[in-house]
Structure formats: structure tokens, C-alpha cells
Amino acid sequence: MDSSGVQSRVIVITSGKGGVGKTTTTSNLSVALARSGHRVVAVDADIGLRNLDVVMGLENRVVYNLIDVVEGSCKLSQALVRDKRVDNLFLLPAAQTRTKDAVSSGQMEELCSMLREEFEYILIDSPAGIESGFRNAVVGADEALVISTPEVPSVRDADRIIGLLESMEKAPIRLVVNRLRTSMVREGEMLDVNDVLDILAIDLIGVVPEDDSVVKSANRGEPLTLSDSSPAALAFQRIAARLAGDEVPFPKFDEENERGLLAGLRRLFGKKD
Amino acid sequence: MGFLKRFFSNGGSKSVAKERLQIVLIHDRADISPEMLDGLRRDIISVITRYMEIDSSRIEMDFDRADRSVAFVANIPVIRIKRGVAPLRDGEQL
Predict the structure, then answer these.
(1) Measured at the alpha carbon of residue A226, what is the angle toward residues A141 and A81, in degrees to the nearest 5?
(2) How many domains does chain B have?
(3) Which chain A residues are Cβ-neighbours of B23 within 8 angstroms?
(4) Nearest CB to B13: which of A189, A195, A198?
(5) Does A264 contact B22 at a Cβ distance shorter than 8 Å?
(6) Where are chain A's structural domains?
(7) Less CB within 10 Å around the terminal CB: N or C of chain A?
(8) Is residue B92 part of a domain?
(9) What CATH number does the domain located at A9-268 have?
């Protein structure tokens, strides 16, 4: 429970495979949740490979980090970087010059309970892999978001991660399908959302379409959900709303509307979307 | 002819991807830990011994991985079948 008496939620964002969008998802969901009035901290648990700070555009204001807090070299409040663009949004950066062995599971659990005192949403950006860094990122979490792109290696690793999360009794475990390319799905050259759901058999919390604005926003250090209305930004806003418990319908990203004669004719005449 | 093929075909790389994933995950998921295999062994023994006396020292169990499927194979030597054991009713515990 945080200081205002609201039940806190610790949510780990994870994937197994690297490069599928954990950090992008963490930054965008954190911003979206804070903008809708929640008190949020984004925690970078990727010790030694700090990245959430640059994606969020807060790298110049990092002084202390997660390791300093768990080792008692600074107070929690000193290590939290406040995002000046959004009320109620903070970042707890990872250490860049230490290794993942610098923190233990026990320390991470303790850190999470400290953060619960202050925040309503604690979003933890997990490192790739299934080693100790992953376990430390997960240990203090109640629930999990698993990120997968509609590609074979990513789905396979997501399956492995889901098994580990289930054995650690995290619930709910929900899926984000990231970087879906509707035109490829339509052509039968990419797994669609239902294929991925069939295989992984967990609940879907959202689908993020492939969108160039994701790269641009990371270049600038401005998460899309700060202002943008690009397809990916809207998708992340919907996921944040669902996370907060709102019923948000799923728009059709996949080919379902595009099957049949009309779609066939369109393909015949080479019309691109 | 390319456009006709595109119009009528629905066998893009997606179906290959899905099939390959389903197969690889059967293998991945069958790769269970020794602890889980021990638990499975204990549970199977407790069920089987309700119906028959077995030589539990000579039980062999393992996963048999073929190209497109995985089978769980158990070889359990039977010493004696018990007489007149009623199967468990729904919800009844061992």
C-alpha cells in the first residue's frame, strides 16, 4: 500500500529474448499511467546495461542508482529521478558500472517493498535472458507483462519465460504482441495475434503495431505517450488503460477485416495499406 | 502469373512459422526438470499401486522424442494385479 492508502502493484516487463521492446514498453506505459494521474516509478533492473534512462530522456539527471540504494550509499529519494514533463513519474536508474551480481534477490524484494510505500505502480524493466538478472527483476513483482514480437525466436523465448513466471507464481501474466506488421500478416507472411495467443495460451493485454515513430522517440528521449498520437502511442495508451483496469476494446490490427474477395482484389491490384 | 499465385495462395511463411513453433515448443516443454520427473514418478507409482503390485526399483520412464511429436514412455514391471479395485469416483482422492 502506498502512502495515500492505494494498493500498490509491482509489474515486471519481461521477454526472454532481447530487443523485442521491453524498455520501450516500460517507458511508454510509465508515462501513460502517470499522465492518467497515477503515481508511477519505472525501475531499470538491467544492472550493467542501463538504458531506460536514455529512452526516457532522463540520462543527464541520473546521480545515484539502484545499487546505491540497496547498498545504503544513498536514500531512495536521492536516487529517484523525477520526470519534469509529467507529474508523479519517477525513474530509478540501473547502475552502469556494476554487474548484475552486485544485487541479491533479497535486496530486490526489499527495494520493492520500499517502493510500495511511495508508489501506486512500480514498473520493472527486466534484462533479457533467464539468469540471475531476470530472477532479481521478477522476485519482488506481483504480476508480469511478457513482450513478444510475432517471430519464431521471440515467441519461443516468451514461452520459456511464461513457464518460469508461472513457477514463481506471478499472476496475472499477460502478453503484449509488439511490432506487428499488418501488411505482412495480410500477405500470410507473419504470425497474427491469434497464432501467437494459440501457442502461448495466456491473456492478451495489447497489440502494438510496427511504427517508425518508436525509433524517432527513442532518438529524442521522448516517450511516445507524452504527446504523440501515432499508432504505437495509441496502442501503449490502451495497454496502460487496461492495466489500470479499464475495459478497452481491441481494435482489429490483423487480417480479419481483410479476408475475402475484397482483400483478394486489393492484393491483385497491388494496393498497399 | 505471380499475381494469380498471390491471389489464390494462403500458404505464406506464416503457416511454416506456426508449425515450427508448435513442434519446437513440444520439445522445449517436454524438457522437464529432474525434480518434476521425480514428482511424476511418485504420482504414477501411487496410482498404479492401487491396482497392481509393481517392481518400483525397475521402473523406466522417459520422453521419446520423434521428429514431430513427443511421447512419454513408461515401462513398469508388474508383479501381481489386485482383485476387484473400484476406480476412483470424481473428486475422490487417492
Answers:
(1) 55
(2) 1
(3) none
(4) A189
(5) no
(6) 9-268
(7) C
(8) no
(9) 3.40.50.300
